[in-house]
Input
Amino acid sequence: MKKTLIYIFLLLFISPFIIVGYYYTQYNYDLDKLINYKPLLTTRIYDRNGEKIANLFSTEHRYYATFDEIPPRLIEALLAIEDTTFFEHHGVNFDAIFRAIIKDIKARKMVEGASTLTQQLVKNTLLTREKKLSRKVKELIFSMKLERELSKEEILERYLNEVYLGHGYYGMKTAADGYFHKDLKNLTLKEMAMLVGLPKAPSFYSPTKNYEISLGRANRVIERMHSLGWIDDKTYDKATKEQPHVYDTTLTQNQAPFIVDEVLRELIKDFPDIKTGGYDIYTTVDLNMQRSGREALKYAYDRNIARVSSSEDSNDTNLTQLNGALVSIEPSSGDILALVGSVDYDKSPYNRATQGRRQPGSAFKPFIYQVAIDLGYSGATQLVDIAKTYEYEKDGEEMKWQPDNYEKNYKGLIPLREALIHSRNLATINLVTDIGLDTMIQSLENYGIKNLPRDLSLSLGSISLSPLELAQYYSSFANHGVQVEPILIKKVEKNSQVVFRQEAKRKYITSPEQTYLMTSILEDVVKKGTGRNARVSGIELAGKTGTTNNNVDAWFAGYSPSIETIVWFGNDDNTPMHAKETGGRTAAPAFSYFYKELLKSNPQVQRKFVKPEGVIEVKIGGETEYFTNTSKPPKNDSTEKKNEELIF
Output
């Protein structure tokens, strides 16, 4: 009887090995997925300072780590708890299988597994999780064959990148970044032990869900390493007592969703695998300034809502449609530093900074005046500020246009500087008339401005532009006469190789001297004109407000000596805002807030405009005016000359 039982036991024990041996010799299983391993890899987006903006991935969030990147201690910890004899077996540990069978028979249930790391890799990558004998046989065969194709180091590299570690993290490098915000090389032994303890039950041992249980599992890993003699007593004591800080962050870690959306929009055609190819995308964005941009918009928005809500006629204003956008660039390089497409991305991801096209109103006037300055006008040139009626034909019908100043008055003659400082509509229209509409349009087109209206409404900014487009055009003022096309992406790398690089396109508009004349006027707009709400103590700022008919749009477009910023507010349905909302009142406070934060985060930023050598100052009536060889000082009689003082 005993012999019969022994024979039965031996048959049961030996049969699986006979079956495995038979199928091993008869079938050639496809191991290409692991031999030519090409996993789905996460793309990372960085700001200009190397700070990560976000992760981009499709179904699996995974950073790839080569074997050389993996700390030896991490490998030791993994082998200690999962497969101590990894470097000794050939894919299957038959001794462990025999011991597991004996324990399972004694317990009359499955109490111990015997899978090697190779078997785990095969099961997770090539097979299903179904609990059938056929699947187990395939697993054993695949594992032994894989060990003939790959080195132990290659198998470990694939395992450590393929293994699922909970929270949506695939691979040790991904989990190290997600749970601890660290590179693999900076992990402590306790952190490594927490990671290698996860594969057995990622959800149960998750440090974000069951922190104490995760620590307990890690301590068992450390105890195992100690019992094997792989760490000393001092290391053991220190590691078991440590309680690492664990982060519970989103998988994308998206700090700037508008930037991420724009990056995708720009690159998806050239890189269709952008979410699976493991690219490193380096943007021009400064995350500190991006945060300041969001805060600035929210500040101005809340201020507007509170002001209108407390007004007597608040019931006549629909506040649910109000929104805004902000874009800030470095005009010398064209780098986009901040790009905010709405007050709240979660409520509205539509990017008004790049896709919203609205009329800039008087924020467009500096281009009109720059044309005049380049033709020889100066800030002292007298303009005619009187009302006129313009007759024209539309669809065969005679029409009349009677523009007016915002203040509903006119001053007769007014210096060009004062006309722009106080945004006088009539003076601007008469200036365009004097220069000639065709000449003005041709000059503006030479500046690179497109889709211009072909009538005098151009004088009041009837063109439709996005904030980003306006930022490009304004760069000619902020960048000393050279217009730059803003860029968001500096370069894209894959496997440390540059696969895409971008530099801003430049267009010469006018000389630094002529541009400085405009800057000096726009400085006065901020100091004492319609842009007073944009002022910031400690830094020189230049800019222009813009308000369209019926207060539909409110703009502030301006710049410091090194940073340019455009702010827009308006209702998404193009209905008028509250009657008192203007560019100076609604948009300028956001501009001011942004530059106050800029001074806090970048106190070294350039604060004063530099006057080019070709610009001269002349005192006229006690006030300083600026001139160049093109925009010459006015001729004066002997009486007037007594009141003038030339300053070089």
